[in-house]
Amino acid sequence: MNAGNKIAVFRKEHFNAAHRLFNPSWDDQRNEAVFGKCNNPNYHGHNYELMVKLTGEPDPETGFVMDLKVLSDIIKEHVVERFDHKNLNLDIPYFKDLNPTAENICMVIYTILREKIDLRFGIQVRLYETERNFVEYPVDIN
Amino acid sequence: MNAGNKIAVFRKEHFNAAHRLFNPSWDDQRNEAVFGKCNNPNYHGHNYELMVKLTGEPDPETGFVMDLKVLSDIIKEHVVERFDHKNLNLDIPYFKDLNPTAENICMVIYTILREKIDLRFGIQVRLYETERNFVEYPVDIN
Amino acid sequence: MNAGNKIAVFRKEHFNAAHRLFNPSWDDQRNEAVFGKCNNPNYHGHNYELMVKLTGEPDPETGFVMDLKVLSDIIKEHVVERFDHKNLNLDIPYFKDLNPTAENICMVIYTILREKIDLRFGIQVRLYETERNFVEYPVDIN
Amino acid sequence: MNAGNKIAVFRKEHFNAAHRLFNPSWDDQRNEAVFGKCNNPNYHGHNYELMVKLTGEPDPETGFVMDLKVLSDIIKEHVVERFDHKNLNLDIPYFKDLNPTAENICMVIYTILREKIDLRFGIQVRLYETERNFVEYPVDIN
Amino acid sequence: MNAGNKIAVFRKEHFNAAHRLFNPSWDDQRNEAVFGKCNNPNYHGHNYELMVKLTGEPDPETGFVMDLKVLSDIIKEHVVERFDHKNLNLDIPYFKDLNPTAENICMVIYTILREKIDLRFGIQVRLYETERNFVEYPVDIN
Amino acid sequence: MNAGNKIAVFRKEHFNAAHRLFNPSWDDQRNEAVFGKCNNPNYHGHNYELMVKLTGEPDPETGFVMDLKVLSDIIKEHVVERFDHKNLNLDIPYFKDLNPTAENICMVIYTILREKIDLRFGIQVRLYETERNFVEYPVDIN
Predict the structure, then answer these.
(1) Contact: A63, E100; criterion CB under 8 Å
(2) Yes or no, beta carbons of C64 and B101 under 8 Å apart
(3) Domain extents for chain C?
(4) Is D129 a catalytic residue?
(5) Nearest-by-CA chain A residue for E128
(6) Residue-wise over E44-64: b if at least 16 C-beta within 10 A, else e?
(7) Which residue from C89, C18, A62, D53 is spatially nearest to E47, judged by alpha carbons?
(8) pLDDT tens digits, chain F, 142 residues: what are they?
(9) Which chains touch E (3 or more CB pairs under 8 A)?
(10) ipTM of the prediction
(11) Considering the entire predicted model, what is its pTM?
């Protein structure tokens, strides 16, 4: 197998969710100082754009690394169905004790997908909270 | 004054908010049937993009219909500051008894801005709830 | 009923299709002169973006003019399912004797949707053939 | 001829230019107060996006209102070639005594194109100075 | 030469083409099962966006790694002119026996460009089949 | 500290500026031959989009690598305030003897930000001169 034949494929999906940023071990004043308006106890929300990068070698019979329809279905079943139109703090157990910053949401999504995608594929997750604020995990993709 | 010199100017702003769609006079079953996942009692959210169109004649001394910096400041002061990082149902009195659909949010924003902008200018508000779902009010701009 | 309460709602969908521009009553030379590379007899293709505007009054019980999920379903059932991943010239009977220019595709889509959407709603169709070339029908929406 | 067959076609082009906003009959202080940082005497610049809308009836032989390649060539020859990579204040005679606000640039482009495009077609020009600031002339298209 | 001075420059181009996905050594049923609607024997099509990344050191006299006008001309001459408004399966010899998936098209474009661009520059090709499906080759750029 | 926990965060900002490309040690003819219309002595301009990538480990108490509001403020204070609505050649000392190509502007911005951001964070700067022409420095982020 020749590493030089590796190619990356990307699929974008999206979900809309509410969240609130705060650290339950801090008092209100410190939460307000650090998280500002993101700390609104009544929540606010975002249209999250999710971009999943997957690396591997194209199958010589299909020309696909992975059919992007299949990748889309995996993302939809395990991420979008769980997160879309939800309150991340209240409805998603991962964020019961974890602040739903873009960084933490991205790492949770990576963890979810890493378990569902064969290890011969490298994966990387980019999550847009807004068009101007986004994050990517991991930094390197293997 | 010659109507033929009228020109339209546009300014886009954005805000991020949580909301929930439901009709309090209906039971849960009917709310679920009509509003589906938008009815999540824990709320979900969006990055709202707001585009305000204003029509009028350019001032011959400045070449501006209205300095878009001024229009931006009006929108920010009266809409964005009030709506951004808020829960529309809980934090915004307009939606105490009004379902915060894109249609109703757009008409509320129009009402707010119409009071703050001189009547010699026509205005129209377009509100994007997502890139693929948006609304515009009024249908005609006078 | 007060016309001043009319609001416009928009839904975007997309489909990918092949087409070829030519006039069967012309010879090859004239088709080549008029349609240039769009006349390739082996076809070329586009990602078409379709934006449907619908005008009406919000229902006071729901706050919707029409649930955009419903509008999306109508567009998907009657347009996207028929046009997506198709060869417009060969697979779509409307274009058996009609050149599939953006103008003609847009007017056909309008005709299809006008029959499926209640006449109390005005509709207008915008079709993007590329990001820089697009069309809209009708010019005025009633 | 049936007005109901009118359809609109759009073509987007772009140009990059420098400009400065000021009124030569005002003193520096007033120019600074009104135009702020846009009054920098050394100029600043923009990537202008230009969208031309043209209305008319499709030609039954071609299915085109106007071949968008032809419309693109008209815009490039008469607007883009003259404005691109230019200093609007210094290089474009139209702005010798006219402040190059988005409004005035848009109206000048309309005037240029109106002379080059057959009067049986309606035209309207939208000019984006930035993604968030743009203008459109005329308000109604005939 | 100091690797720390390397910088990446990018140029985006686009082409519109028709294609069909299938494996000629399979029967219709298996092609249908694997490629679904992408297997339409009458073809479908896309607006392909092509982004070429080139790495190298800026020339101290010009400040350019490579004039992006030059890079654009190379891409246009060797890729866009050959692929635009074509049927990839029928008109492009590379795909006579190679399934024109996004992966294979991307690798072919890389091969074409790698022969035309000096080896002191690293290159990487990203190809968007739709806004939500895209690929990149090679995974690492040297 | 576990490198595997590193994540990248991104913030986009923008500024509008004028510039001219030329090499003062060359005569007009050579500058014209190399820089073409970018050499206009009266300047032209762009809407520059600036994307800053920062890598590091999320703070376990906040879930942030760096609050993107803080990163935004650093970029605005040290880059946008200095470059926005300016003539890069005349108003920005860095370009007194350095040709303001996208490559050089990007490397200058990197240098400015690298001094203001703690060295435990890796940074990389992407600068869009237009939607189709952009650059990124450094090639690798540590």
Answers:
(1) yes
(2) yes
(3) 3-137
(4) yes
(5) A10
(6) bbbbbbbbbbbbbbbeeebbb
(7) C18
(8) 344 689 999 999 999 999 999 999 999 999 999 999 999 999 999 999 999 999 999 999 999 999 999 999 999 999 999 999 999 999 999 999 999 999 999 999 999 999 999 999 999 999 999 999 999 999 998 6
(9) A, C, F
(10) 0.95
(11) 0.96
